[in-house]
């Protein structure tokens, strides 16, 4: 059984919008998600979160707190994802994803989230709680 561990960052701006990326392999339908990715080379989950947000969006962030851990199994891969609240502290919006899977970056409102095709639809209610 394979295992995958990673981190996701939840960033909300002053306009009460959440930072999202449009992603997908060339053969897949493209869907939206918060920036996320796998832990590399013994880095901490917090460091993974910061690196992934920077790689996928160009923003530099400060990790504020851990929000939740999601565990499960998908296609015989056990996964564990640590979600963090993060605040943008610098950088410029730009895609610099080394994997070439990110196609767009945008700040999405509560109403946008309800209609977007999401990579992980089970996260919708969790994400909506951040947008008051």
Notable features of this structure?
Nucleoside Triphosphate Pyrophosphohydrolase; 4-stranded mixed beta sheet; 132 residues; 45% strand; single chain; 3 helices; alpha+beta; 3-stranded antiparallel beta sheet
Task: Please give a quick description of this structure.
With 132 residues, the chain is of the alpha+beta class.
Walk me through this protein's architecture:
This protein is an alpha+beta fold and 132 residues long. It has helices at residues 45-57, 110-115, 124-128, and strands at 2-10, 18-23, 31-33, 36-38, 59-74, 77-91, 102-108. The protein has one domain: Nucleoside Triphosphate Pyrophosphohydrolase, CATH 3.90.79. Strands 4-1-6-5 form a four-stranded mixed beta sheet, covered by helices on one side. A hairpin with a 2-residue loop joins strand 5 (59-74) and strand 6. The mean pLDDT is 94. This is NUDIX hydrolase. It is an enzyme of class 3 (hydrolase). InterPro entries: Nudix_hydrolase (IPR020476), NUDIX_hydrolase-like_dom_sf (IPR015797), NUDIX_hydrolase_CS (IPR020084), NUDIX_hydrolase_dom (IPR000086).
CATH class: Alpha Beta
Largest sheet: 4 strands, mixed
Taking Cα atoms only, what radius of gyration do you get, to the nearest Å?
Answer: 14 Å
CATH topology description:
Nucleoside Triphosphate Pyrophosphohydrolase
| Percent helix | 10-25%
Q: What class, by secondary structure content?
A: alpha+beta
Helical segment tally?
3
GO molecular function: hydrolase activity
EC number: 3.6.-.-
Cofactor: Mg(2+)
Keywords: Hydrolase
Q: What secondary-structure arrangement, pairings included, does this model have?
A:
Elements: E1 2-10, E2 18-23, E3 31-33, E4 36-38, H1 45-57, E5 59-74, E6 77-91, E7 102-108, H2 110-115, H3 124-128
Parallel strand pairs: 1-6
Antiparallel strand pairs: 1-4, 2-3, 2-7, 5-6
């Amino acid at each position: 059984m394979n295992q995958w561990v990673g981190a996701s960052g939840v960033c909300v701006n002053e306009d009460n919008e959440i930072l999202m990326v449009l992603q997908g392999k060339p053969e897949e339908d493209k869907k939206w998600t918060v920036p996320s990715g796998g832990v590399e080379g013994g880095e901490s989950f917090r460091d993974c979160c910061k690196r992934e947000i920077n790689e996928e969006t160009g923003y530099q962030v400060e990790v504020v707190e851990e929000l939740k851990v999601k565990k499960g199994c998908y296609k015989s891969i056990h996964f564990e994802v640590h979600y963090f609240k993060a605040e943008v502290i610098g950088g410029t919006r730009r895609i610099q994803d080394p994997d070439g899977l990110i196609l767009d970056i945008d700040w999405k409102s509560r109403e946008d989230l309800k209609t977007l095709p999401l990579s992980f639809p089970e996260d919708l209610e969790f994400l909506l709680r951040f947008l008051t």
